[in-house]
Write a structure and sequence with these properties.
heterodimer, A: Rossmann fold, 6-stranded parallel β-sheet, 5 helices, B: 376 residues, alpha/beta, Rossmann fold, Beta-Lactamase, 11 helices
Chain lengths: 189, 376
Amino acid sequence: MKIEAIVGSNKKLSYNRKLLQFMKDHFADDEININEVKDFPMFNENYPEGEEAHDPELITELAKRIEAADAVIIGCPEYNHSVPSALKSAIEWLSYRIHPLHGKPVMIVGASIHPQGSSRSQTHLREILDSPGVFAEVFPGNEFFLGTAKKAFTDDGELINQGTVGFLEQCFTGFKKYAEEINDFKKVK
Amino acid sequence: MKLVAIVGTNADFSYNRKLLEYMKWHFRTAAEIEVLEVKQLPPFNEDLPYSEQTEVWRFNNKVNTADGVIIATPEYDHSIPAALKSGLEWLSYKHKTMKEKPVMIVGVSYGTQGTSRAQQQLRQMLLSPDLNSDVLPGSEVLIGNAAKTFDKNGFVTDINIVHNLEDSFAAFNKFVKSNMRYLEEGDVNMAQPNISSEAKVQFRTGSLKIKEIQQIFNTLPFEIDFIDATDHFSFYSDKPDREHVRYPNEIGETVEECHPPKALPGVRAILDSFKLGTQDHVERCLPLNGHKVWINYFAVRDENGRYLGTMEFTGNVGHLVNLVKDGKFDGFPDATSGASKHDDDAEATGPAAADTEADATTGASEHDEEKEDKTE
């Protein structure tokens, strides 16, 4: 399966990036491509200043990759109990003039240095992805919260806790099945 | 009451901006409202060098010195715009600017929901530990059908909305004032022991009542600020028409918090040299508010030379300069020696004051001169 993964942080050191990198390596039978939000400009309906407003090229490129993919995974940090502005800004770009996430199966995962593992942020992200304009097909249940992320990885980027790996495998397998069903259904329609 | 109102979008045209401008006008007798934009802030990023973010510092400072904050949020994808979220992230990064700050949420949307979902999420964000704000409960302002809400002069056309705004603002007014009273008086159930204003402080050279000390500071034709030994801004004299306008909210701030990032290295250099004892005095002359402003930093020490803090002594010397120009000091017996001494000082300390090493030598030479004076 061809999957576009989005790192929800613009920080150099991001445990969500580590988590997505682990998934890419661990689920090597599937093609997971990692995308960054850090170089996107802040969403502004009047962007760019002094020109006729249009979407940035980096965004339209990402949108094309999402459209060509079978599914999307978002790695979501938590800032102030919610989604980081860097990720929210990317979603705003992807729901304003273009709507590449419309009907796209999306899986949410998240890591944080606190025990909750971005739980509040993920709830907000679900609401955001469920809004008209985004209209994503968000994989229900299967909440993957990687808490105390500082201690979660080996130096080589492997998840240390095998129980966590097992649960991630279970979520990912379920997600692929869900994504196939959604995509099949769209074809029939 | 001083409030800031944050426009929750970076869009050129915004009904939420219109709403805040309307509130600024409509509630002008109750509060001084300054409308702030998140547009000029860089997108929040922890990897940006914080010390270079002058706009962020300014934004933080404005919010910090306000008695309360109004946030007008649009709704993008059932949540607040990224531009506003980014502003809140800056307000909770490094400093907890929003901590216990009274906040009123309002919002305008094109549809009928009036940003209800965005406001719900915003409430949750504001209650997170790093923002930790006091959000006004109830009193929702959810304005839908934005296009029909304002006339061409920016006035709200629907009387029900006007009443909703007035009721909510009255609640917020009370909310902010009770918060201010609390900050001033503390918890009445746990009264703190205090010293009455009639109490006297005994100095070697006489005694003063607490009230007198306060009023002497406030009456001096110069203003005084004090940074204590732990680098916290701990006092300013309440002189009317200060050159450096300060607010009670700033008391207790660290040196980092109360200076623009660009000014910080210079301030640090002065404080470090005072602590080391390489110099005791730094002088600056600069034009400020159209005045000739003379700024002096003094190391304050105890009898053993231990550093107690830094006193900043600031004053408009325009009047003094005019007196000199008008020859008011001419005809004094020591007029010539006085003037030449002043010239010497100016040459040595003036512009070179930026160089701390130069200051160190000046300090010493000044000291010598003083000694000479005494022997004379």
